[in-house]
Amino acid sequence: MEQKGRLVVISGFSGAGKGTLMKALLAAHPDRYALSVSATTRDPRPGEQDGIDYFFVTDEKFHAMIKEDDFLEYAGYVGHYYGTPRSYVEKNLAEGKNVILEIEIQGALHVKEKIKDAVLMFVTAPDADTLKERLTGRGTETGDVIAARLSRACEEARGIENYDYLVVNDTVEHASELIDTLISDERNGNASDNEAYWVSANIDFINQIREDLKQFSKGE
Ligand code: 5GP
To answer: What does the pLDDT look like over 126-139, one tens digit per residue?
Structure first.
């Protein structure tokens, strides 16, 4: 019988390149992964499509969905709500696919409480300078929003210890294949092969990024 899929939570600083990584992972292994599409109350960015990037909903609709218990988890992030529709996740796990949730840290921790064998991965750019460049270079956010997101990144950095793996997004090809290997090994009971990527093995590197982010958010 098909083994039930694993729930995989991917978080990371704004600008770490999670979205690009997930697209590469799905394109390379469409049979193994399903990407959950979240609902959000924020406005679409140019090029984003309803039902593909997010389900863009009103505050009223979002609250109605909370009431109906439609979300596996939801959270507020820099002035808007984001939530994971439950039904898609449950259906795909039952079909044996690994389901990817690209969500922020509060949601990730809720998921881990509810689903003990969820695998939590934190994606970062190779250093804090690259993060800032990617955020600024995206050109879709105002200075205030970038500042708010950098400050939120500082906060999130405090929660990294709750994650299982740290993935450095050096190149899209390398990082997306690494994610596939980590998940496959988890599923096959070989997680100990990948100790070098455990968060617990990367604390010094994480502390350095944390320190740099703190300096940025002070405006230095
Ligand atoms: P963005 O506005 O840049 O698309 O997303 C902002 C943050 O919300 C990102 O950290 C993203 O991972 C997170 N996010 C997106 N969808 C969800 C969701 O369904 N639940 C939670 N908790 N966070 C989400």
So the answer is: 887 887 787 777 66
- Give, using CA atoms, the residue closest to atom 12 of ligand 1: 103
Residue owning the nearest CA to atom 21 of ligand 1: 103
CA of 191 to the centre of ligand 1 (A): 27
This prediction's pTM: 0.88
Nearest residue to 53 (alpha-carbon basis) of 42, 34, 37 = 37
Residues with beta carbon inside 6 Å of ligand 1? 14, 38, 42, 73-75, 77, 82-84, 102-104, 106-107
pLDDT of 7 above 90: yes
Could you write out the three-class secondary structure of the chain? CCCCCCEEEEEECCCCCHHHHHHHHHHHCCCCEEECCCEECCCCCCCCCECCCEEECCHHHHHHHHHCCCEEEEEEECCEEEEEEHHHHHHHHHCCCEEEEECCHHHHHHHHHHCCCCEEEEEECCCHHHHHHHHHHCCCCCHHHHHHHHHHHHHHHCCHHHCCEEEECCCHHHHHHHHHHHHHHHHCCCHHHHHHHEHHHCHHHHHHHHHHHHHHHCCC
How many whole angstroms from 82 Cα to the centroid of ligand 1? 6
Q: Quote the ligand 1 centre to 107 CA distance (angstroms).
A: 9
Q: How far is the CA of 193 from the centre of ligand 1 (A)?
A: 30
Q: Which atom of ligand 1 is nearest to the CA of 71?
A: 19
